[in-house]
Probable isoaspartyl peptidase/L-asparaginase CG7860 (Galleria mellonella), 312 residues
Amino acid sequence: MNPIIIVHGGAGDVPDSRVKGKLDGSKKAVIAGHEILVRGGSALDAVEAAVVSMEKDEYFNAGYGSVLNLRGEVEMEASIMCGKNLDVGAVTLIKDFLHPISIAHKVLTDSPHSLLGGEGAKIFALDKGFHTVDPKSLISPHAKKALEDFLKHGEFGRTEIGMDEAGVGTVGAVAVDSNGHVAVATSTGGMSGKAIGRIGDTPQIGSGTYADDLVGGVSTTGHGESILKYCLAHSIIKLMEDGLDANTSTKKAVNGMTSRLNNTAGAITLSKNGDIGIHFSSKRMSWAYIKDKKIFYGINQGEVFEEQYEQQ
Ligand code: ASP
């Protein structure tokens, strides 16, 4: 089959000043993943590459530019799943590595466990040759400003996600490779002003991430406590398994979560055949995919831009 990859750059109330940066970063990320797929690479490597690209980019709430907890620190989490055999790898409470998604991928391939957190994740990463960075080097000026604003007026979980300058931008990617294997990766800094040690939906399989070659793959973003109560990623998979198409399933589950729990979210979905689902109940969510030599992308409700894409 023709391989395909789709990415998102976080659901929320993205301020106008951040729109262009998110669209550019989403396009760059989808190209990074697509180039791996067209050279015959695996869906797993493609989703990792797309997420790595956004973890480096301060326009996203993942890696450098992650939002801050109440103590002003970055605490990141990520997960990755392989649809071929349902293998998973996830990490949480990561403070001093730039690319949590790459450590999660290593957990998938090299650990008997599924989810490692905090000190244990650090020990594992060091053992696998990952290099630490100074935790302060992960803090962007926008993330600092977002925490200051949150401390002035925020109430966790009651404000719209991303109301503040940098308070939005969890990243994710879903791919199907030329062998028909599905993979999904999701990475985040969580939510501005979160408690120390708070773990959201992103590292939890079935909430932030799900992949199954027999059905498809989903990456989610939005209000973590709601997404994990609703097992949003797996809810979408279940609807597809029951016969709904990718877009209808995505819309139905995201809207179902929002009406039941009164918080917003977004998701990107691919069916095993490469059919696309994109939906968000938040004001904005950046997304991008490449199909038939064109990049399609958008951030506002109902908006689709397209550009010619010639592979390098
Ligand atoms: N879902 C993420 C979390 O709650 C935040 C986001 O997607 O913006 O940790």
